[in-house]
Amino acid sequence: xxxQMTDQDIAVISQAFSDQGxxxxxxxxxxxxxxxxxxxxxxLVAELxxxxxxxxxxxxxxxxxxxxxxHIPEICDLxxxxxxxxxxxxxxxxxxxxxxxxxxxxxIGLRVGLLSDYGAAQRLYxxxxxxxxxxxxxxxxxxxxxxxxxxxxxxxxxxxxKSLTYILSNARLExxxxxxxxVSAIQSDFPGFAYDPYKNIVRKNIQRGTALCxxxxxxxxxxxxxxxxxxHLSFVGVDPMYRKQGIASMMMDELLMRLDxxxxxxxxxxxxxxxxxxxxxxxxxxxxxxxxxxxxxPQQKMILKR
Length: 306
Description:
Layout: E1 2-4, H1 9-19, H2 26-37, E2 41-48, E3 51-59, H3 65-69, E4 74-80, H4 89-101, E5 107-113, H5 119-127, E6 131-139, E7 142-143, E8 156-163, E9 167-170, H6 176-184, H7 195-208, E10 211-216, E11 219-227, E12 232-238, H8 247-258, E13 262-267, H9 275-283, E14 287-294, E15 297-304
Parallel strand pairs: 4-5, 12-13
Antiparallel strand pairs: 1-2, 2-3, 3-4, 5-8, 6-7, 6-8, 9-10, 10-11, 11-12, 13-15, 14-15
């Protein structure tokens, strides 16, 4: 569970980090709580099985020059207890922070350290679609130039930003490789998937204008193929890192503007792999039709008539 920090959390958080040998005084969290009440900061706390597991803060008045001048809120002080790492808690905290911010802002930023201690964080941020701001290394809000000298420590950072605005459009031929990169991560969800034949199908759909994609930071995170002649939704997929954010619904809304009646073949009702897809289709009014097999795998046709 992820929720906002309260004053009851202060002692618990400080003690939890003390137990693993990290000094984080209660004064730090008292200051965070004060800034929360002033609207300057948000602190989100993660719990696992009722126990504190980690937290992240969002600074709405960042001192980092680029964020300040562009009114970009900054994610900072992401911390997960060592015993709860590799359980996806850092990812869930980041997603919760982004969900909160995108209701008020178009983008979000963060700074990441350069030392190996920050290796896991660096990989996570890149995987989540953050891009370096291109301004180089900074420390205490000062950017470095050639031949500057400094002490290498935790305050030596690179700035990163991420757009929180999804863009839906027809795919272009230059998108083909990025499309295939995304689909390669979910190909096991599609019986009979074959890379090269599928790539050729995508290319033909792009040329016909029947391939939709959703981008975030110029990276494809959702795709859809359809046929206006047979009124068939032939493929829809969302990057696993960006699911449950309305991307599939964005594509479905666009498809419903282009087609009236639609049919799709998906997993049968008792197949766990089809639960999310069937839920999506039923939300839009699709009804169950005949049972079929595709590449020897049991599936079902669903139909929408308007």
